User: Which sequence fits this backbone?
């Protein structure tokens, strides 16, 4: 008999023989915990938001519609139904009532859970000065009727207050999870505790499919109704998670959640932080991993251009041990990567750029928050004595895979760092890359944006190496005057 054990709202539950591709949301609602709502079932609306305390003891708001039930085995889950103590509402619920943060109430449970996470983030206590962090906290929750002003007022009131609630008591408890082998009928979910075990399963089962955060794979389950027969979760393999800096080199483990990467990169690798600022929502970034972002092989995955521009290496483990592959050779064709059967990505490694390098990262999408890129770009240029010594220009959304614009790079090297040189390189980008037209943008639009982003990069970095995004910016490119921006091209 297959059993999963976890806590939900302080109640210990043991469940048996539930198919492993059941989502947490489906299970919650099927067991009467209908306070948690379903809107889109694809990570876009936030109605299903719950809180998960992971094995490291960190509290994370997550979309329960994309979380598979075995992924919470051994962990602690909080839903909107576990917040109040008897008739006494949680501080966040009280504030939603007092400040009129709800009308029809459909979105409210999801908002409340994102707000409770905000309450437990001490770094948000002072977020007024930096209030893009508040936008980021709630951009994964949609409301059709209340209007965001009262909900933002609740956020300002509760953010960083660290309430002494029932959740507080269960934070920061590290859990060492043993391997999980969960088999129901002809479906199995393995969460091995070691890399060796994971590789053994991959080597022996043709149908094995790796899963990390499931923010992408979960869509196959909820939208395409795929009943995977053998999932291999990397969640419990400790060595695959985390960021290690040794001298000038950094290693980012494949299962590092993007919120962890975001926190480190704000000071550790600001150009990457700039790209992560508009990556999905907080709920998505709490589960989405670096490995999943690269291995889903999307031509519009947002990390790839930055890693290509920074000349990162992929670390790949397989039956024959560990191999390294330049990120340049990782993306082979549309939705195809260079992993062989039995291999998985264990991390990426790169040199931290020195302070003189000119760097930029840009994402252009139809909507600023929680949208997929039409075009993304990352640039790294070294200038010595006024001349370009080296250049790497990488794009997403411009070809079947994330790509470098090599002809344009050649057009830059050896030339003076000037507007004329950049114009020539922008023309080379447009000649070299032939994007498709789709609902996110026509080929002409993408091509024009790609050239203009390079021009914008020049404007930003003409006289200085790199600029982080200011808190309130109105364009993709940050212009010369402090606090001012040029319009999006
Ligand atoms: C609402 C929403 C918004 C999103 N916004 C963005 C965005 O702004 N930018 C963006 O780039 N993406 C976005 N995504 C896509 C997705 O969330 C990310 O690509 C994410 O990083 C995937 O990571 P994951 O761990 O959830 O991958 P999973 O879903 O677990 O896996 C994705 C694929 O990679 C494979 N895989 C995972 N890890 C490994 C590994 N270590 N080795 C080998 N194979 C592996 C899996 O088999 C699967 O095929 C969004 C998705 C949603 C649902
Ligand atoms: S139901 Fe919409 S994000 Fe989960
Ligand atoms: S209160 Fe109706 S959807 Fe938000």
Assistant:
């Amino acid at each position: 008999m297959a059993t999963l054990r976890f806590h939900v709202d302080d109640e210990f539950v043991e469940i048996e023989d539930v198919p492993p591709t059941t989502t947490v949301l489906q299970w919650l609602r099927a067991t009467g915990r209908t306070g948690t709502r379903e809107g889109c079932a694809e990570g876009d609306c936030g109605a299903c938001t719950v809180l998960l305390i992971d094995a490291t003891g960190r509290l994370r708001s997550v979309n329960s519609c994309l979380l598979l039930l075995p992924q919470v085995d051994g962990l602690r889950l909080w839903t909107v139904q576990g917040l109040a103590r008897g008739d006494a509402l949680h501080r966040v619920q009280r504030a939603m009532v007092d400040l009129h943060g709800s009308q029809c109430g459909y979105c409210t449970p999801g908002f409340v859970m994102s707000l409770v996470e905000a309450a437990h983030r001490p770094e948000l206590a002072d977020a007024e000065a930096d209030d893009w962090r508040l936008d980021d906290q709630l951009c994964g929750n949609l409301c059709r009727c209340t209007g965001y002003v009262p909900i933002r007022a609740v956020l300002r009131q509760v953010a960083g207050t660290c309430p002494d609630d029932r959740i507080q008591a269960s934070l920061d408890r590290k859990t060492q999870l043993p391997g999980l082998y969960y088999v129901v009928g002809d479906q199995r979910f393995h969460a091995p505790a070691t890399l060796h075990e994971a590789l053994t399963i991959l080597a022996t089962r043709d149908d094995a499919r790796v899963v990390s955060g499931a923010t992408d794979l979960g869509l196959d389950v909820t939208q395409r109704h795929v009943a995977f027969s053998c999932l291999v979760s990397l969640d419990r393999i400790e060595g695959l998670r985390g960021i290690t800096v040794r001298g000038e080199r950094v290693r980012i483990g494949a299962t590092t959640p993007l919120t962890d990467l975001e926190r480190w990169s704000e000071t550790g690798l600001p150009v990457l932080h700039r790209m992560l600022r508009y990556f999905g929502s907080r709920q998505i970034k709490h589960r989405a991993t670096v490995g999943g972002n690269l291995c889903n092989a999307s031509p519009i995955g947002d990390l790839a251009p930055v890693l290509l521009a920074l000349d990162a290496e992929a670390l790949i483990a397989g039956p024959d041990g560990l191999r390294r592959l330049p990120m340049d050779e990782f993306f082979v064709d549309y939705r195809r990567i260079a992993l062989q059967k039995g291999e998985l990505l264990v991390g990426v490694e790169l040199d931290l750029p020195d302070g003189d390098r000119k760097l930029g990262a840009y994402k252009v999408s139809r909507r600023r928050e929680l949208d997929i890129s039409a075009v993304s770009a990352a640039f790294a240029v070294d200038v010595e004595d006024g001349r370009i010594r080296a250049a790497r220009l990488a794009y997403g959304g411009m070809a079947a895979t994330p790509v470098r614009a090599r002809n344009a790079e050649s057009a830059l090297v050896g030339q003076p760092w000037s507007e004329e040189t950049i114009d020539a390189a922008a023309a080379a980008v447009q000649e070299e890359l032939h994007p498709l037209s789709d609902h996110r943008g026509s080929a002409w639009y993408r091509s024009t944006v790609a050239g203009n982003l390079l021009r914008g990069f020049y404007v930003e970095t003409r006289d200085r190496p790199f600029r982080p995004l200011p808190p309130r910016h109105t364009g993709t490119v940050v212009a010369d005057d402090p606090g001012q921006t040029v319009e999006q091209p």
Summary: The two ends are 59 Å apart (CA to CA).
